[in-house]
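ping. complex inputs:
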Amino acid sequence: MNSSDPFATSPKADKATLRRHNLSLVLRTVHDAGEATRAAVAGRVGLTRAAVSSLVDQLLGDGYLTEWGKTFSGQAGRPGTVLKMARTGPAGLGVEINIDYITVCVVDLAGTDRVRLVERLDNRAAAPTAVLTQAARIAARALESAAEQELRPVAAELALPGLVSGGAVRQAPNLGWNRVAVEGVFAQALSALRPAHRALPVSADNEANLAAMAELWFGDVVGDGAGKGAGKGASAHDGTGRVTSFIYLTGEIGIGGALVLGGRLLRGAHGFAGEIGHVVVEADGPECRCGARGCLEQYAGQAALLRAAGLDESSGAAGVAELESRARDGNKQALAALEDAGRRLGRVLSGAVNLIDPDAVLLGGVFRGLMPWLAPAADAELTARVVSGLWTPGNGRLRASSSSGDAARGAAARVIREVLADPAAYAERGTN
Amino acid sequence: MNSSDPFATSPKADKATLRRHNLSLVLRTVHDAGEATRAAVAGRVGLTRAAVSSLVDQLLGDGYLTEWGKTFSGQAGRPGTVLKMARTGPAGLGVEINIDYITVCVVDLAGTDRVRLVERLDNRAAAPTAVLTQAARIAARALESAAEQELRPVAAELALPGLVSGGAVRQAPNLGWNRVAVEGVFAQALSALRPAHRALPVSADNEANLAAMAELWFGDVVGDGAGKGAGKGASAHDGTGRVTSFIYLTGEIGIGGALVLGGRLLRGAHGFAGEIGHVVVEADGPECRCGARGCLEQYAGQAALLRAAGLDESSGAAGVAELESRARDGNKQALAALEDAGRRLGRVLSGAVNLIDPDAVLLGGVFRGLMPWLAPAADAELTARVVSGLWTPGNGRLRASSSSGDAARGAAARVIREVLADPAAYAERGTN
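pong. complex structure:
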């Protein structure tokens, strides 16, 4: 049977599997609605009221749901209590290790950031093990704060600016890391610091992938309910600005990228898709840290932008703030640098749009604040070069990413998504 | 519920739906195996022998399957007859309308090309309606041949070199077509010629998409059984050279492209993904028929290749044969033209590989015969620029497409895939 079969054979379902499935269905229904009565859940999922009550009892017992107050349905009948996601219990730990900062956050079942620790440091100056140990130290402090809030992270997800696969960073050019077994090193460092968390599962992914998922789950311009399946040729644009097919670009010291199509991350055959920062712009351009020449990163990455504007390319966030300020003041060199970067971004993006045909392109990281000066040139290139003719100037398809998600939150939220997909697997005390 | 939910709610299944599903399951099992006994089918699909017999009886009665001879299982027990796909009955009609040819083929349930008609003509010289009417004429002749072979095409699929969506060509730059309602015009022309086929459903897609599907279904370097799902980060390479994630490029007068990931065609949000021919190579390069400047097509398309080699750019297949012959003879201008095109192909492909992370890149159309001279330069660019480091010279990931499939066969085979997915919907006399 090939994988494009429209009728895939369903896996065998027994009673226990069905109950686990239905526990997830009920939990996700409350999660997506924010709050709901048992009757509303029953109506939504198409199960009997009795079946839903039994499932809800288990979810209450396991600490996934809480009951709040009383509501009247507006119709005859007895009032029902409202179910909400628990603010304590299972949580996700997200750890973003980037070039010049480490962010750790703990997200609860509702997706809320409950703990957040950020340290600015130069991770290029230290060995990978030292950086991962430092990240574990910050994570240990976050776990203490989480415990005080009665949150119990059930897994950790690391976000890293590089090619990640099989628990390891294959290559992170801007960190200078090659073949670093990040999951193992971090897990060991954390369990040395917090023996109680020795069994905490640790996984890792590319930071742009996780930032893109945060955008999908939490972004104000991107929603997750309206998505048509990818590959159906249907636009996922629903007229309210909510899109589920987008290219996500994040300007950091390097440029990270991720592709989301029909609400799903496009990973590629080996997990390395989305490396838009290393698409070639000029065949004989400046050498890139990846070893090739003329990559987009060398024209529109943070260092390249600062350099072209006459600023210290290693001046980091302060330099970017200065660049914004100069652009706002009409400084010619700053404006020319941003226009040139925008044009090159637009050219590479037009190629990516011709290949992938997404609904939108979202720019995050340092690009967010620089949008007023980057976007016009980029938009003009996209308008001229997108062959479908579906790109018109200022049509809103090139946008700043929202500020409500980042890679750390995306990482923590991915843990929550796994809990929602099979709550029984994460219950501290099974009543099943 | 969002579309990335690992547990999507299953659609309600009643008894009739289940039987239709199981008819498809049994038919596809025989299709994929080539031939099988009832017992082998039962073992494969996990249904009882009695259930399979009942389903097989219906499929025999509806003319989807035939019974052949007797086999002995090699174990004790009575001999079973062998089931094969019927060589008569439901079939698919594929119609490829390209710049300088029209190909029509009829494919049977086993996927075999049973009728094939090709006409070489200049479709740029005629109005769209005239071209579609000519295609209908050829299709009518193919339907006559099919009837003589007792084949009954149940639907037609058109393959066109352009952006196709909603039954229309939005834009086909090399044909000079804009907003042509191809499905309707073709269906009308065919029903005028063959009133008996008035009800034949007609659909349309991009020719590179359909050629890529032919490659997936029939190619000798690409199989469809070993595919891991796209988006799982796993390589679909199974060591035998069978891949299910690839970029497909076809060199025609233009350059067509398609992306197949995990055995599925990547369509994009509006159905326009895969337009690799219009990825920019030089921002200020020659004007392209799409309206932009410096598209890949202007450097590596057939006309560009012929021109750079000092040949008449409109000399078509004869010119390409001459180019091959000159390259074989060591003609410097021909070799330089091919090396330059190969380098530019390689640059654009390296960007596409960095974005999509496929297992392979397959070159079809005129590129097939030119591989010996295009591939080395393209491979060198890919090796230098693919950031994952997974591209090494001559690793076999850049390949000529196989000769066993083309867009016309892919189009006809797509009809067969739909029949296999729900045979009951296409049965002439329902016994259900």
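Chain B touches chain A through 87 residues (CB under 8 Å).
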